[in-house]
Each structure stands twice: as C-alpha cells, then as structure tokens.
Amino acid sequence: MYFIAVIFILIIAIILILVVLVQNSKGGGLSSSFGGGGGNQFGGVAQTNKFLEKATWGLAIALLFFSLVASISITSKQEAGEQSNIYEHIQNYDFDTKPTVPVEINIPE
Predict the structure, then answer these.
(1) To the nearest 10°, the Cα dihedral for 34, 37, 39, 43?
(2) How many CB atoms lie within 10 A of CB 91?
(3) What letter does residue 41 receive in the DSSP assignment?
(4) Nearest Cα to Cα of residue 48 among 40, 38, 58, 60
C-alpha cells in the first residue's frame, strides 16, 4: 500500500507542478493565450482560470490525502512487527566492549 501511495504522490506532484507553471499570477499564462478576440471556443479566460484554480486545489488535496495514506501505512507496517534495522542494532549492541578510537598517522612531507 505504501509504494502505491508513493507512486500516486509522485504523479500528482508532477502534474501539480505543471498546472502551477501554466498559471500566471498577473493574468498571463495559459489562460491569456486562449483569450484571443471575441468569442472563444474554450470557454474564455475566466473559465480557464477557474479550471486551473480548481485543478490546483484538487491536486493539492489529493497530494495531502495520499501523503496521509503513506504515513498511516508505514505506521501500521511497523506496528505489525516489522521493525527498522536501527532498532535491531541497538538491541544487539554489546555495551561492554569499548569502541575503537581512530589512530592518527603523521606522514612527513
């Protein structure tokens, strides 16, 4: 489940980047290129702006949702008995032996 959520997160993030790059905060961007003269077959500049804004919000919400799904799936996997390597190293570490100290070697120039 985790890997599926990560794949969705990557796809949504790429699409969200593209949608944000298409927009222009000063009224330019993709919506201004559709706003030629007179009537427009694409629904006009306002419709394009509304669509891009809704797409941005929808993708942001989907990104948040799949991030939560990935987080929950990792937590449930660890609670099910699968623990990290760090935990195993701490449990199996021999605290009675002293760690070795690196030796400095002086090489004459």
Answers:
(1) 20
(2) 8
(3) T
(4) 40
- Measured between alpha carbons, how far is 42 from 73 in angstroms, rounded to an integer? 42
For residue 33 the two structure tokens come to: 């290129």
Identify the band that residue 82 occupies on the pLDDT scale cut at 50, 70 and 90.
Answer: low
Global pTM exceeds 0.70: no
Please return the burial class of 99, using the count of CB atoms within 10 Å of its CB with bins 0-12, 13-18 and 19+: exposed
Tokens at 100, concatenated = 């070795």
Q: Using CA atoms, how far apart are residues 81 and 100, in angstroms rounded to an integer?
A: 33
65, 12 in Cβ contact below 8 A?
no
Distance CA 9, CA 81 (A): 26
- Residue 44: what pLDDT? 63
